[in-house]
Amino acid sequence: MLLLVLAIPCGARGASTETNDPLQSLNRKTYAFNEGLDKYILRPVARGWDFVAPDIVEDSLRNFDDNIRFPIIAVNDILQWKWRAATEQTGRFVVNTTVGILGFRDVAAGWGLAKQNEDSGQTFGKWGIPAGPYLVLPLFGPSNPRDAIGLLADGALSIYWLAAPLYVTLPYRTVDVVNRRALADEDIESARKAALDFYVFMRNAYRQRRNALIRDVAETGTGAAAIDDNLYDVDDPYELDDEE
Description:
disordered C terminus; two-stranded antiparallel sheet; globular; 2% strand; mainly alpha; single chain
């Protein structure tokens, strides 16, 4: 579940009364498929990777991937008229690519250039495009029609598709997913144990976090554990204020 491993879920406490989940029967089947892949393939591989890889290697790989997301973040900053943010992210990319050795070190964070999380789904939300019903995507996990289309747009902006052939990018993306799953393992498993229904938790947490990002009220943080690790950090699923 790619979206799951980009985050640290915390604090499930129940279901929202406004589920907007008309495809729940299909979604739960897809969710079960994703959970099976995680349980029998991704989680064991990630734990093996975590056992052999030093922390500095895991953090460096995450920093590198965050750095090459620069085109996605900068373009969406511009599309949302965030000129200062786009300028800061350009500076962040330059600093980390040079001083930070191709982005393996997040030097820019120490210089006051914090990591941002902007994507095409957020831009569509800023433009007033409704999210639509909750949707669980195979492999990718929690989403909605707006964000699913946003994933395609982000893929077109991804620099590694232009910089390297498919036989290089696919193994790279696989390593990145495994690495992020390893980094988030403890918190993901804690959330699974705490949630009465992890499907409901993921649905509510995903919506609240996406709405917060669109409204620019999500915490951004500054270091290696910044934005992506807090994607599903939920204070109270009952307080969802969905734009749908």
